Amino acid sequence: MGSLEAATVLVAPAPVVTTPPAQHKLLELKASYAPAAKSVPASKPKPIKKKLAGGCSGYVLEDVPHLTDYLPELKSYPNPLQDHPAYSVVKQYFVNPDDTVSKKIVVHKSSARGTHFRRAGPRQRVYFEPGEVRAAIVTCGGLCPGLNTVIRELVCGLHDMYGVSSVVGIVGGYRGFYARNTVDLTPRSVNDIHKRGGTVLGTSRGGQDTAKIVDSVQDRGINQVYVIGGDGTQKGASSIADEVQRRGLKCAVVGVPKTIDNDIAVIDKSFGFDTAVEEAQRAINAAHVEAESAENGVGVVKLMGRNSGFIAMYATLASRDVDCCLIPESPFFLDGKGGLLEFVEKRLRENGHMVIVVAEGAGQDLIAKSMHFADTHDASGNKLLLDVGLWLSHKIKEHFKRKPAGFPITLKYIDPTYMIRAVPSNASDNVYCTLLAHSALHGAMAGYSGFTVAPVNGRHAYIPFYSCTWYEQEQQEMAAKATRMHRSSAPLHL
Which residues contact 217 (CB under 8 A, 6 or more apart)? Predict the structure, then answer.
C-alpha cells in the first residue's frame, strides 16, 4: 500500500478564496497572465494529464480538472442557492468537498478501496457570478429520447437556481460553432420542448475542428459549454476542454453522455434507454400478433444496438413473447447442430409460431463473409452496419424452402429503429434527464471542467472524459458489458 501511495500524484483541492467579489466585466475569458493567441495549427496540443489523488487503503480519486488548476488567482463567491427560498431550507443541501463515489462497490474484505470519482452536486462556493455567465449548449450525433429535456433543464436550471440569463444554443452540432448562428434560449422558449422528440437545436455528425470551435468560444464570449452527445462527441468535448486550458480561458466544458444503446460500462444507465425499451415493446407485440395469427408464423424484429444488446435484451425480458434474442456480445451460427435455424424449426414444430429479436450489430461477421463486404464508416467514425434483420429473414426463408417435404412459413420483418429513437422521453427518462442537467450545471458553476456527468452505483458523479469506457480497450469494454448483462438476466429464463 505504501508503494501505491508513493507513486500517486497528489493534487490539492481547489482553493477557496474568501475575499469580497470585485467588480468584473461581463466576461473575462483570457487569463491576465497568459493572453493566449487563437488557433495555432503548427502542432497538436498535448492532452491534459490525469489528475489523481491517493489515500489510505488503496484509495484513488480520479479527479476532474478545475479552473483554478491553471487560473490559481480565480475568485470564488458564495453559492446563490444558500439564499434561494426553494433550497436554503434543506439541511446539508451542499455536497461535502470530500465526498466521492466508488467506481466498484462489490469487493472482497482484503481488496483495496479502489477508484473513486468526485460526487456531483452544488458546492458552497462557485467560480462564476450569474451576470458574467454566457452558456452554450450543443447536441451532436444521432437522436435519442430526452435530448430536448436535457436542453430544457440546463436552461431552466441555470436561470432558476443561479440567475443566469444568457444561454445560447449552437445550431446543427459542432459545425454550428463556426458555420451557423446561435439561438437564444430562455425558460419561456424551451418551456414545452420536452414534449417533442429529436432536438430543437438540430444535430450532425463530424465537424470537429477544435481550434475553430475554441476560436468561436472566445469570439462569442462563451464561458460555459454543455456538450450532449455520444462517443465521438465526448471525445471532441475532451479536445475542446484541453484547448481551452492550453489557452488559459475561464471556460468550463461539460459533457452529458448520450447513447440510446446504454453501452457505457462505467455508468449505471444512459438517458433515453428506458423510453427505447418501452417503445420497442410495441414492435415486439406486433410481431407476436402477426406470428401467432399465421401457420408457422415467424416474427423478426430488429432493434438498435450497434455494439451492445441492452435494448434488445431488456425488451425481450420485458415482453415474454420472444423466443430468441440475438445480441452483438454473443456470437451465433446458422447451420448445423445447435445452430439458429435448427432452433427455429424446433420451436415452430413445438409452438407453431415464434418471435426473434435481433440487435442491429449482431451477426455482422456472418453477413460480411457471405456478402464479401468491405468495412466503411460514417462521419463520426462508426462502422456502417449491414441490415442483419433482412439478411436473417432471407436465410430463414431459404432454409424452409429447401425442406424436401415442404415446410411453409409466414415471416414478417419489423424494423422500428428510427421510430424508437425519435419519440419524446417517457416520465422516467424526463426525471433522469433533469438530474443529469442539474448535476452538470452545478459542476460548471463550481469551476469544474473536462468531465462528463452520470450516475455511478446510484450516485451522480463527475467522471473525467478519459475515464469513459469509450477510451478503454475494446475487450475490456465488452467484458464489462457482458458482466452487466449477466447480472441483469441471469435469474430470468425465456
Answer: 29, 136, 177, 225, 240, 244, 249, 251
> What is the spatial distance between Cα 436 and Cα 22, in angstroms, rounded to a whole number?
32
Identity (one letter) of the amino acid at 57? S
447 assigned binding-site residue? no
Q: Pairing between strand 252-257 and 224-229? A: parallel
Number of structural domains in the chain: 2
Q: Are residues 147 and 212 in the same domain?
A: yes
3-class secondary-structure state, position 471: helix
230 is in an annotated binding site: yes
Domain range enclosing 135:
2-27+51-269+425-486
- Measured in degrees and rounded to the nearest 5, phi and psi for residue 276 equal -60, -45
Q: Is 19 annotated as a binding residue?
A: no
Give per-residue pLDDT as tens, 237-286: 999 999 999 999 999 999 999 988 888 888 899 999 999 999 999 999 99
429 is in an annotated binding site: no
Among residues 394, 421, 448, which one ends one of the domains? 421
- CB neighbour list of residue 56: distance below 8 Å, 6 or more residues apart: 1, 5, 113
**In-domain check, residue 39:** no
The amino acid sitting at 356 is I
Report the pLDDT value the prediction gives residue 390, as an integer from 0 to 100. Answer: 94
Domain assignment of residue 32, yes or no? no
Q: Can you give the CATH number for the domain in which 277 is found?
A: 3.40.50.460
Neighbours of 139 (CB within 10 A): 31
Are the CB atoms for 351 and 322 separated by under 8 Å?
A: no
Last residue of a domain, one of 370, 393, 421: 421
Q: Which of 63, 261, 274, 321 is catalytic?
A: 261
C-alpha cell at position 404: 424436401
Residue 261 annotated to the active site: yes
Same domain for 114 and 203? yes
pLDDT range class, residue 188, cuts 50, 70, 90: very high
Q: What Rg value do the Cα atoms of the chain yield, rounded? A: 25
Q: Grid coordinates representing 470?
A: 469509450
The phi, psi pair for 456, rounded to 5°, reads -125, 115
Q: How many CB atoms lie within 10 A of CB 270?
A: 26
Residue 119 among known ligand-binding residues: no
